């Protein structure tokens, strides 16, 4: 008797399990939910530069600092901008909540400097959370891994190191989800970030635990983008943002 009850229980569980495994999501055809907007992709240059798509905000027009605060000392040349020791951070005028940010950067072919003074810059999301830029093509054996290019500085090392050699352009594709806050200022939901570095995933919807070192503004649900000057020379182009 006991054995037959046991068999029935096993049979019921098996049927229940198979119904879960093979349950299909209902087929629903949506026609006006709404329709995805048509977006024209940006032009791609011979050396891999990706211009802004039609729905993006271009953060640098190749000519002036109209999207950036103050009167930056950075050098504009041939559609690029370059920071150098003493040039200071670049702060965007606009603020964003969730966004996709595309940015391209390179180091001089004859780059010099040791450790964190070798091509150090960074993209500060909301001005608070740094995605590190550092010359880690040659300079990666001695440096702490959560300070590599593509790291969330001192929080998450990049999953891999796809850095191009000095003199060649690199690309960050950054997808940022803004935090939300409790009344006491603590995170209700942490900020999160996905980063593709030269097309390779290096941060996969990673949780950002808090401000990274070097952050210089108060945290809030919207914020600007800052590009770091950290005693190094780094050149940028094709900086654009899509608000999400
Ligand atoms: Mg940095």
State the gist of this model.
The chain is mostly beta strands and 244 residues long.
Secondary structure layout:
Layout (H helix, E strand, L loop, with lengths): L1 H20 L35 E2 L16 E3 L2 E4 L6 E2 L7 E8 L14 E5 L3 E5 L36 E8 L2 E2 L5 E3 L2 E6 L2 E8 L17 E3 L6 E10 L1
Antiparallel strand pairs: 1-14, 2-3, 3-14, 4-13, 5-8, 5-14, 6-7, 6-13, 8-11, 9-10, 11-12
The site of magnesium ion has 8 residues, from strand 6 and strand 7.
Question: What can you see in these coordinates?
Answer:
It is a single chain. By secondary structure, this protein is mainly beta. It has a single domain (57-243), classed as Sandwich (Jelly Rolls). It has one helix and 14 strands. It has one helix spanning 2-21, and strands at 57-58, 75-77, 80-83, 90-91, 99-106, 121-125, 129-133, 170-177, 180-181, 187-189, 192-197, 200-207, 225-227, 234-243. The strands form three sheets. Strands 1, 2, 3, 5, 8, 11, 12 and 14 form an eight-stranded antiparallel β-sheet that branches. A four-stranded antiparallel β-sheet has the order 4-13-6-7, with no helix packed on it. The termini are far apart. The model has no long low-confidence stretch (mean pLDDT 89). Bound molecules: magnesium ion. Magnesium ion is lined by residues 120-122, 130, 132-133, 228, 230.
